[in-house]
Write a structure and sequence with these properties.
Elements (H helix, E strand, L loop, with lengths): L1 E9 L3 H8 L12 E6 L4 E8 L2 E13 L3 E6 L5 E12 L2 E11 L2 H9 L2 H18 L52
Antiparallel strand pairs: 1-7, 2-3, 3-4, 4-5, 5-6, 6-7
Length: about 190
């Protein structure tokens, strides 16, 4: 696995920077090669990327999320292996440091060659610069998901496909309890 570490200073308050990062579905706006991110639930995201002409789809799981401090993740799909952590540190009321550390296992000869030439580091550096611009040029909103996810709750599993719905139960000819026979009525 290849390790990439990058840090950038963003001219925005910590809460706004963190909030923007938690809007995973907006990642294609500033991450090169990311075509789509769909948040499946609080912990799981589905990604579609296109790098060097190769399209991949995979799922990631948020392993640890502590609001305004860090988010760590890992892939849970076959074929793509990566994990990482992004951390946020308040520098002052108007500036935040974002640090990203990521381990990626390149797949195939093209990705391995690109990794050897430092393309992964360049891509991550460029993504962080575009994130900085995106936040600094944004509306300053602080919205985003602020929930806490702990490693102990992590599954390490890709999401299961949904089960087909159960057919509705058909009531019998006499739903509920049968009425009592009146006193003196013959038993059949």
């Amino acid at each position: 696995m290849s390790m990439v570490q990058e840090t950038i200073r963003v001219a925005a308050p910590l809460r706004a920077v963190y909030g923007q990062w938690t809007r995973f579905e907006e990642f294609p706006r500033f991450m090169e090669g990311v075509e789509e991110v769909r948040q499946l639930d609080d912990r799981l995201c589905h990604w579609r990327t296109r790098v060097a002409g190769v399209t991949r789809e995979f799922d990631t799981e948020i392993v640890d999320q502590l609001p305004d401090e860090r988010i760590s993740w890992r892939t849970v799909s076959e074929g793509v292996r990566q994990k990482g952590v992004v951390s946020f540190r308040r520098l002052d009321d108007a500036h935040t440091r974002v640090s990203l550390a990521m381990e990626v296992e390149p797949q195939g000869i093209i990705e391995k060659a690109g990794d050897a030439l430092g393309f992964l580091e360049e891509r991550v550096r460029g993504d962080l610069l575009r994130f900085k611009e995106y936040v600094e040029e944004g509306d300053g909103t602080e919205s985003g998901w602020r929930g806490r996810l702990r490693p102990a709750d992590s599954t390490g599993q890709a999401p299961e496909p949904p089960e087909p719905p159960e057919p509705p139960e058909r009531p019998g000819p006499y739903p509920g309890q049968l009425p009592e026979a009146p006193p003196g009525a013959p038993h059949i």
